[in-house]
Amino acid sequence: MGLSEIETRIQKACDEAGRDRASVQLIAVSKVQPLERIEAVLEQGHRLFGENRVQEAAGKWPDFQQRFDDVSVHLIGPLQSNKTRQAIELFDAIHSVDRPKLAKAIARIADELGHCPDLFIQVNTGEEPQKAGVMPDDTDAFVAQCRDLGLPIKGLMSIPPVEETPSLHFALLAKLAARNGLDGLSMGMSSDFEEAIALGATHIRVGSAIFGARVRQG
Ligand SMILES: *Cc1c(COP(=O)(O)O)cnc(C)c1O
């Protein structure tokens, strides 16, 4: 696989869904990938990347951002409240806002720093006990709470359970977003991004299909 093949598949999925290619952003998920693979994708002109750990992103992106213009990095993994400041400084978007304590910390620090990344609320559509995210039934209230805090909520994000049909989860996420007046839908990974595009994804998060298998699980 690789970037150009993924681009072809995204274009095809957009055509089939009657969507404009520009309505879907490809987040190249570079967690735990060797730096030379990331550099190769940067050399091909790709500029939007996703990382799931603050520390790991802090170790590689400032350097790449010195060498390549207009690089954006999104946090797609869980965020501990004590790393909020660092996350706001590093990332252009955070896809894992999932609890009031974190929402309040983001609001306070963003206010202090004078800027805030785009935010997505993570929804645990499969209601899995071990997984992060607000429950579907709690989503409306949490969106309202974030808006009361003045946070720039762009959309919802979900990671469907591995053993279930992803489209059911994508459809649920789309429904929750629509009823809250949110346009952003961060959903779809290497194995299911075409289905996510068919159901309205605006941000797909594709790692291994672009970079190859991860050396260790991230
Ligand atoms: C790792 C990861 C991805 C990418 O997964 P692939 O299967 O390699 O495409 C997408 N989203 C999140 C939240 C991830 O942690």
The total domain count is 1
Determine the oligomeric state from the structure: single chain
**Unique bound compounds:** pyridoxal-5'-phosphate
Which CATH architecture would you pick?
Alpha-Beta Barrel
Question: How many β-strand stretches?
Answer: 8
| Spatial shape | globular
Low-confidence segments: none
Side-by-side strand order of the widest sheet: 7-6-5-4-3-2-1-8
Average pLDDT across residues? 97
Beta-strand residue percentage: 15-25%
Number of helices: 9
Distance between the termini: 20 Å
Sketch the topology as an H/E string, one letter per element. HEHEHEHEHEHEHEHEH
Largest β sheet strand count, sense and barrel closure: 8 strands, parallel
Structural class: alpha/beta
Provide the helix percentage: 40-55%
Which features would summarize this protein structure in a list?
alpha/beta; 8 strands; 9 helices; globular; 8-stranded parallel sheet; about 220 residues; binds pyridoxal-5'-phosphate; TIM Barrel
Structure description:
With 218 residues, this protein is of the alpha/beta class. It has one domain: TIM Barrel. It has nine helices and eight strands. The chain has helices at residues 3-17, 35-43, 54-67, 84-90, 100-113, 139-148, 166-179, 193-198, 208-211; strands at 25-29, 48-51, 72-75, 93-97, 118-122, 153-157, 184-186, 203-206. It has an eight-stranded parallel β-sheet with strand order 7-6-5-4-3-2-1-8. Helix 6 (139-148) links the parallel strand 5 (118-122) and strand 6. Bound molecules: pyridoxal-5'-phosphate. Pyridoxal-5'-phosphate (PLP) binds at residues 29, 31, 52, 76-77, 159, 189-190, 205-209, 218.
